[in-house]
Amino acid sequence: MFLVSLFTFHFSLHSSAQSPLISYAHYVIDTLASPYMDGRDYVDSGEWKAATFIRNEFRKDSLLKFTNSYFQPFFFDVNVFPGDMKVKMSDSTLVPGKDFLVSPFSGSSRGKFRIYKLEKNPADTSNAAIEKLLKPLQKKGKKKKWKHTFVAIQRNQFSKEQYQFFRQTLEVTACFGAPGCIEFTHDKLTWDASTTQSLYTYLQMTGDFPKSKKATVTTDIESRLIKNYSTQNVLGYFRGTSVPDSFIVFTAHYDHLGQMGNGTYFPGANDNASGSSMVLNLAKYFSQHPSKYSVAFISFSGEELGLLGSSFYVQHPVFPLGKIKFLVNLDIVGTGDEGIKVVNATEFPKQFDELVKLNDEHQFLKQVSPRGKAANSDHYPFYLSGVPCFFIYTMGGIAAYHDIYDRAQTLPLTKYEELFNLLVDFESGF
């Protein structure tokens, strides 16, 4: 019932003058990035709702199943924040996602705590400076003192290497017995996901150290580590007309970051409802335009937790990986003002040159820019297994990424149709 209502809303929100391709993309993105999906989370089964939606779209377009189901089940651990998410700095109530983030590996935290500032000279970029800074936390007999204290740092006082050393030390020592740490930062707040849970809470807050020496932080944060969460990849295909034993494969991950407590969710419109919509649009196209090769479509879960869905698939392929002629992974394709970046371009120069040639002929995109190999999306487990593949993402436009602002309403789809046409032409060249 919800999807019917959302579909109606979609067509009232987006102009009927748009092409069917763009209208369908909006429908998919609006659905996957909606509050109903809760950021495709693991608390209220948002990721399962998303997988079910994709499966139903596969059914509508009559994709064939590799097994008796479109689903490929697997399991992982995941740390979630299912309940309260309240933080006050002294008497000021902070807004989750806007004023602060709780790091995804954090444990629960409830209480009022004093703040101990770890202030340093930014000019001293040695790790010895960090060791000196942490000495008071390591003194014997002081652990009781830190039980009621959040230690705090100012991120811009630390070099990159110092920051990494500090974070590693915190993890090894479980924050020296303190219940938590606050990182004050001027950088954009960017969230993530975790398969583990620490014994302490790590908060990132916008701005500077509090001026008051008596500043306190009050927390009410619920964290829960779910063991062996049941999830699934979603897969289907169309049989090739003349070479059915060889496959062109299009992939995208459908999972995102979920909720950070009640009432705060990460929509994930660009990352990666946009890529999921492109895979579904391609499936719709090939349902009407058969290829000489079989064309497979795979939607992965667990990408945000470390490429878990694609890694599982590579370990349990439903057809031999050696039968893949080429794989294109689509992740963050909702803009395109500055063209596209092609990861693995340097690894497969012949196929990259073909992409560039097609783009030059038809002037689809401003540029098709090369990038080397990188372990930054679901193409990578396939690459490590010898499968020729690209990972394509768009450049330019909005800067929303892993935050509460990556919404369907502000995703422009600037060169979405042009990228679709480039991908169709690229496939037809095999």
Describe the structure.
With 430 residues, the protein is of the alpha/beta class. It folds into two domains: 2-77 and 226-428, Zn peptidases (Aminopeptidase, 3-Layer(aba) Sandwich), CATH 3.40.630.10; 85-221, Glucose Oxidase, domain 1 (3-Layer(bba) Sandwich). 30% of the residues lie in helices and 25% in strands. It contains eleven helices and 16 strands. The chain has helices at 2-13, 20-32, 46-60, 127-138, 143-146, 160-173, 269-288, 308-315, 349-362, 379-384, 416-428; strands at 71-80, 85-89, 92-93, 100-102, 109-117, 149-154, 180-185, 201-206, 216-221, 224-238, 243-253, 293-300, 324-330, 340-343, 368-371, 389-394. Strands 1-10-12-11-13-16-14-15 form an eight-stranded mixed sheet, with helices on both faces. Strands 3-2-9-5-6-7-8-4 form an eight-stranded mixed sheet, with no helix packed on it. Helix 9 (349-362) links the parallel strand 14 (340-343) and strand 15. The longest helix has 20 residues, at 269-288. The two termini are 41 Å apart. The model is unreliable at 1-16 (pLDDT under 50).
